[in-house]
Each structure stands twice: as structure tokens, then as C-alpha cells.
């Protein structure tokens, strides 16, 4: 029995930038500074918008092609990233249709 492909999102968090599937989402300076147009109540707004876009596309694939949406994301984080910033990323993922997170330190 062949299992259908599973879509897993890749999220990279460096000291400088957040990328989703290799596309720039937001500069970390704006996240660190908690700029109101970027961070609200611990949610990174540009990241949430991007994740919701990807989840809507994944749900369309589920309907059209039977590829189950898992809500899985692999977060690759810089080892020097402050814990508070990682929490913002994880909170944003959890509230943006991606509650199934796996964390991996960047090499």
C-alpha cells in the first residue's frame, strides 16, 4: 500500500531573518524590537500571514489531490537565537494552522 506524500513546511530562523520554504518573510531586527507592525501579543504578523497562505494552499491540495494536510513544520533555528524569540515563532506557528512542530538546530 502506497502512502500519499505528506507536505511539511520548512521554516528557518537565523539571527537576521525568518524564511519559509526559502522565501524571506521578516527581518529578525523587527522581531527583536517588537515593532507593533510586526509583532502583536507575541505573534509575528508577517509569519502568520505567510503560514496561513501555505495552509490554505495545502488544504486545496488535500481536496484536489488527496494529499493530507498535516500541519507539520520543521523549524531550523540558529543555536544563538534567544529563547523568547523562538517562543514567538512557535506561538505564531501554533496559531497559524501549524501546531505540529519539530525543532532542529542549524549547523
Describe the structure.
The structure is a single chain. With 107 residues, this protein is an alpha/beta fold. The chain is built from three helices and seven strands; from the N terminus they run E-E-E-H-E-E-H-E-H-E. The chain has helices at residues 28-32, 45-65, 83-94, and strands spanning 7-13, 17-20, 23-27, 39-40, 43-44, 69-77, 100-105. The protein has a five-stranded mixed β-sheet with strand order 3-2-1-6-7. A hairpin with a 2-residue loop joins strand 4 (39-40) and strand 5 (43-44). The longest helix is centred in the middle third of the chain and has 21 residues, at 45-65. The chain is globular. The termini are far apart. The model has no long low-confidence stretch (mean pLDDT 93).
Order of helices and strands: EEEHEEHEHE
* Low-pLDDT ranges: none
Q: What composes the largest sheet? A: 5 strands, mixed
Task: Provide the residue-averaged pLDDT.
Answer: 93
Return Rg in Å.
14 Å
Q: How many distinct helices?
A: 3
Strand content: 25-35%
Number of strands: 7
Strand order of the largest sheet: 3-2-1-6-7
Question: Which geometry do the CA atoms define?
Answer: globular
Topology of helices and strands:
Blueprint lengths: L6 E7 L3 E4 L2 E5 H5 L6 E2 L2 E2 H21 L3 E9 L5 H12 L5 E6 L2
Parallel strand pairs: 1-6, 6-7
Antiparallel strand pairs: 1-2, 2-3, 4-5
Key traits:
single chain; 107 residues; alpha/beta; 5-stranded mixed β-sheet; two-stranded antiparallel sheet; 3 helices; globular
Amino acid at each position: 500500500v502506497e502512502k500519499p506524500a505528506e507536505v511539511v513546511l520548512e521554516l528557518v530562523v537565523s539571527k537576521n531573518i525568518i524564511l519559509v520554504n526559502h522565501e524571506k518573510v521578516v527581518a529578525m531586527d523587527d522581531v527583536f524590537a517588537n515593532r507593533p507592525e510586526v509583532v502583536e501579543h507575541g505573534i509575528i504578523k508577517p509569519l502568520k500571514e505567510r503560514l496561513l497562505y501555505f495552509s490554505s494552499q495545502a488544504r486545496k491540495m488535500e481536496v484536489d489531490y488527496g494529499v493530507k494536510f498535516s500541519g507539520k513544520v520543521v523549524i531550523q533555528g540558529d543555536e544563538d537565537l534567544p529563547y523568547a524569540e523562538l517562543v514567538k515563532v512557535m506561538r505564531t506557528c501554533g496559531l497559524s494552522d501549524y501546531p505540529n512542530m519539530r525543532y532542529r538546530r542549524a549547523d
